[in-house]
Design brief:
This protein is α/β, with parallel strands linked by helices. It is about 45% helix and about 20% strand. The protein has nine helices and nine strands. Strands 2-1-8-7-6-3-4-5-9 form a nine-stranded mixed β-sheet. The radius of gyration is 25 Å and the shape is elongated.
Length: about 230
């Protein structure tokens, strides 16, 4: 009972500080200033009247660390679909999400797909525009679609574009992931190929994800590069 009551009071204290105090503490040095501690003292003493100034300082720092860690793990997820534009559902369409992601990229675009179809050229002007802005573009595809790939490279002519093919000696392994990552912070993971059917016609489902976990997608492909499974 004592521990439950203590946890409840700590949670109440955290909620009070979270509104307008913890966001204004930029570093541990802010917790060391007596002027700040005296300003927050009343809030602490409402729940823990016997805390000393030093104990308030330590508890404030601990709650700040908890707040920062919770923000790092915070993720936003949005469902995206293809082939359902006439169903009046509260989900966004695949092609619209892809175009918005590419347009909003400021320094890095990462794309993977099983195949490059002729429909991919609907995105070519947008990719060329981002390339001209200095955005680095990396595209990863399966190793068996050479004609459209050659046409893509000739048509885009972007200096800071790199295209990798999956190169695994096993006949039973293929690059089948369909993902787009922008600026290491937002990822779109979908069942849709980069084709007309995938973007418009088929019933496809995907998720738009924002948060720290997005970086792990890039790390997976960096590891594939290191192991020699991706070739320029």
């Amino acid at each position: 009972m004592f521990h439950e009551k203590l946890l409840f009071k700590l949670n109440v204290l955290y909620q009070k500080l979270q509104e307008d105090i913890l966001p204004n503490i930029s570093s541990s040095k802010d917790c060391e200033l007596d002027s700040n501690i005296l300003r927050y003292k009343r809030i602490f003493h409402e729940l823990f009247p016997n805390l000393s100034i030093d104990e308030i300082r330590k508890l404030l720092l601990l709650l700040k660390l908890v707040s920062d860690r919770s923000k790092e793990n915070l993720h936003r997820v949005e469902i995206v679909s293809s082939g359902m534009s006439n169903m009046n559902l509260p989900v966004r369409e695949t092609i619209g999400v892809i175009k918005q992601l590419l347009f909003e990229a400021s320094h890095y675009i990462f794309m993977t797909g099983y195949a490059i179809s002729s429909y991919f050229h609907h995105l070519a002007d947008l990719l060329r525009y981002k390339g001209a802005q200095g955005v680095t573009i990396e595209i990863f595809i399966e190793n068996n679609h050479n004609e459209n790939l050659k046409h893509l490279l000739d048509h885009l002519n972007i200096e800071n574009l790199k295209v990798y093919k999956y190169n695994n000696p096993s006949r039973h392994s293929a690059l089948h992931a369909k993902t787009i990552v922008v600026d290491y912070r937002v990822a779109f993971i979908t069942s849709a190929n980069l084709s007309y059917n995938g973007m418009i016609n088929n019933i496809e489902i995907g998720a738009l994800i924002e948060g720290k976990q997005v970086e792990n997608i890039i790390k997976i492909f960096e590891e594939l590069k290191n192991r020699g499974f991706l070739k320029l």
